[in-house]
Amino acid sequence: MIVTTTHTVEGRPIRDYLGIVTGEVIVGANLFRDMFASITDLVGGRSGSYERVLERGRREAILEMVDKCKQLGGDALVGCDIDYQVIGKKGSMLMVSVSGTAVKLA
């Protein structure tokens, strides 16, 4: 399945627009990850544990969106967008939401 942020797929004309589809995932951060991330922030460097959480959330949200596109009979998703938002008490959870337009290619 083609998933792109562009509004077209080069060399593949869009035959039908099937509608907007979304994928949402909420992932939590645990106490130990927060503690080690704070240490990393103090001494500098990247926080690998948070990067893995971001990657997992993004991957799962995109897979959910792709599944919804397939249910509509789509061949591709165009105009895709990824958003992140911290939610919950003291920002303890991260919401990853993706959206795009399911299309049928010619």
TrEMBL record:
InterPro entries: UPF0145_dom_sf (IPR035439), UPF0145_YbjQ-like (IPR002765). Pfam families: YbjQ_1. Belongs to the UPF0145 family. This is UPF0145 protein ACFO0A_04205. It comes from Novosphingobium tardum.
